[in-house]
Amino acid sequence: MPTVTTKYMGDLRTEITHVQSGSKVITDAPVDNHGKGESISPTDMVAAALGSCMLTIMGISAKNHGFSIEGTTLEITKVMGTEPRRIAEIDIEVNLPSDYSDSHKRIIEAAARSCPVEHSLHPDIKRVINFHYKK
Questions:
Q1: pTM of the predicted protein model
Q2: Which is it for strands 126-133 and 86-96: parallel, antiparallel or unpaired?
Q3: Which residues contact 100 (CB under 8 A, 6 or more apart)?
Q4: What distance in Å separates the CA atoms of residue 56 and residue 53, rounded to the nearest whole number?
């Protein structure tokens, strides 16, 4: 069974369906690439997938070590390159709700950098990840 199915809807729009859950996502080409930008673009989804993966692995690691990162938010900026048109950089600001111990900070930051999406991205894509702990 496939993981996802994707249907071209016309006018540079696709509908992605997660087969197991039936959840759907619409994508549009971005305005700077002939699209309307009315929905998330495929390259935005790559950046979002990296962030979601980081948070998931951080959450697993925190849970396994007896603490929580609930309330953590990410601000993700994707930078496109040219020749060829591709994702050149992904900048992530990680905003944590507490000032954790040094030990917990090491666990959080190692987990964030060990997610499967991170390891799947081409090494030429620059990643800038900054952690901000609430005082």
A1: 0.94
A2: parallel
A3: 67, 108, 133
A4: 5
Q: How far apart are CA 70 and CA 57, in angstroms?
A: 13
Helices (H) and strands (E) in the chain, counts: 3, 6
Q: Is 71 left (phi over 0), alpha (psi -120 to 50) or beta?
A: left
**E-assigned strands of the chain?**
4-10, 13-18, 24-28, 73-81, 86-96, 126-133
Q: Which amino acid is at 83?
A: E
* CA dihedral sign of residues 99, 104, 105, 108: negative
Q: What is the pLDDT along the chain (135 residues), one digit of tens a residue?
A: 999 999 999 999 999 999 999 999 999 999 999 999 999 999 999 999 999 999 999 999 999 999 999 999 999 999 999 999 999 999 999 999 999 999 999 999 999 999 999 999 999 999 999 999 998
